[in-house]
Write a structure and sequence with these properties.
- By secondary structure, the chain is an alpha/beta fold.
- It folds into 2 domains: 226 residues, Alpha-Beta Complex (Spore Coat Polysaccharide Biosynthesis Protein SpsA, Chain A), CATH 3.90.550; 99 residues, 3 Solenoid (UDP N-Acetylglucosamine Acyltransferase, domain 1), CATH 2.160.10.
- It is 22% helix and 29% strand.
- A 7-stranded mixed beta sheet has the order 5-4-1-6-10-7-11, sandwiched between helices. Strands 13-16-19-22-25-27 form a 6-stranded parallel beta sheet. A 5-stranded parallel beta sheet has the order 12-15-18-21-24, covered by helices on one side.
- The radius of gyration is 24 Å and the shape is elongated.
- The N and C termini lie far apart (49 Å).
């Protein structure tokens, strides 16, 4: 999509997850959380992204660039001290090449791994159709304390975002999720006009739409299902996101000719490659850069990490890491393949087989 760049706010530490590892690189289905967000941005047709990290940016950038996002030019900048996501966005704006002020910036947090390209494409299309200076991604809910609600004027037009202080359940509202599309030439000046949040002293992106509306610029909203923007802010959220992405990954492979006898008991990382006519039995776990060729039967109760399995092989109740299984083999049950092990074509191992490099 032309004249659109993405700005990803990845400044969160691992503290909410009780971890030294920065939140954006906690793994989900074998991929860092931030990697899922970058894939959604790329799938929406955006070709350039600046990622603003905290002081642990080197850790984040190295982990992400180990497997660079496809179709997306990514640059990393650091926000040395936490002063709010608006300041992080201001830092991020300096990372773009020269661009047309009439273009747009898509702003996305790094902790929304369930985002999809379709959702972001819809948001960008609504922004272009409305002609607004800023389009706010929203969902419909009931007002409760702490919800970021979109404020409307007496004509029903959005004019900003406020945090609800309501202590009891209130009326139906449109809640902002923290994802925005903003005209490039307006973003930096609007950030500089925001006031520090009274509680934290930080400058926050949620105040930018109000600044733009006060200057006479039009705002628009685009509503989605709430689960499109689920944030990961603790270990429970991490587990819920893992389950949702695992279901999405399993569906992807079943639609492409893979049989899963019991998908709820089948774990396939997003980094795995499966050919058509592969059958996965209950208790299978495939991780890393594992590749399974066509016509294989894998499982039950088989764990393969960074392994390659040749066509029409059968692997039962086996554990393997960094191992290679040839074509038309029968391996297991209860086989153990050590790193570097190779099982030649047409081998029948028998039970309790152990192979080393």
């Amino acid at each position: 999509m032309g004249d659109v760049s993405a700005l990803v706010i990845a400044t969160a530490s691992g503290a909410p997850l009780v971890s030294e590892r920065p939140k954006p690189i906690h793994l989900l289905c074998g991929r860092p959380m931030l990697s899922w967000v970058l894939s959604a941005i790329s799938d929406a047709g955006v070709g350039e992204a600046v990622i603003v990290t905290g002081s642990d940016g080197d850790w984040i950038s190295k982990r992400i660039m180990d497997t660079p996002p496809r179709g997306l030019t990514a640059r990393f900048l650091e926000q040395p001290r936490q002063r709010g996501n608006a300041e992080a966005a201001l830092i991020g704006m300096s990372g773009f090449d020269e661009f047309d002020d009439e273009g747009d910036v898509l702003i996305v947090p790094a902790d929304m791994p369930l985002l999809t390209g379709d959702v972001l494409s819809t948001l960008l299309e609504e922004h272009r159709t409305s002609g607004a200076a800023c389009t706010i991604a929203t969902y419909h809910t009931i007002e409760t304390a702490g919800v970021r609600k979109v404020v409307h004027d007496r004509h029903g037009r959005p004019v900003g975002i406020a945090v609800s202080s309501l202590q009891e359940q209130g009326d139906a509202i449109e809640a902002a999720v923290g994802v925005y599309v903003i005209r490039r030439g307006l973003l930096s000046p609007a950030i500089r006009r925001t006031l520090p949040d009274p509680g934290s002293g930080h400058h926050l992106l949620r105040d930018v739409p109000g600044v733009l509306a006060d200057s006479g610029h039009a705002l628009a909203t685009c509503a989605f299902a709430p689960d499109s923007f689920e944030e990961v802010d603790n270990r429970l959220h991490l587990a819920e996101a893992e389950a949702a992405l695992r279901d999405r990954t399993n569906r992807h492979w079943m639609e492409r000719g893979v049989t899963m006898i019991d998908p709820s008991r089948t774990r396939v990382d997003a980094t795995v490659e499966l050919a058509p006519d592969v059958t996965l039995y209950p208790g299978v776990s495939l991780s890393g850069n594992t590749v399974i060729a066509e016509g294989c039967d894998i499982g039950p109760d088989t764990n393969l990490d960074h392994c390659t399995v040749g066509s029409r092989s059968v692997v039962r109740s086996t554990t393997g890491q960094l191992a290679t299984i040839g074509e038309q083999c029968t391996v297991g049950p209860y086989a153990a393949l050590s790193p570097g092990a190779e099982v030649p074509d047409r081998t029948v191992t028998g039970p309790f087989y152990a192979a080393e490099a």
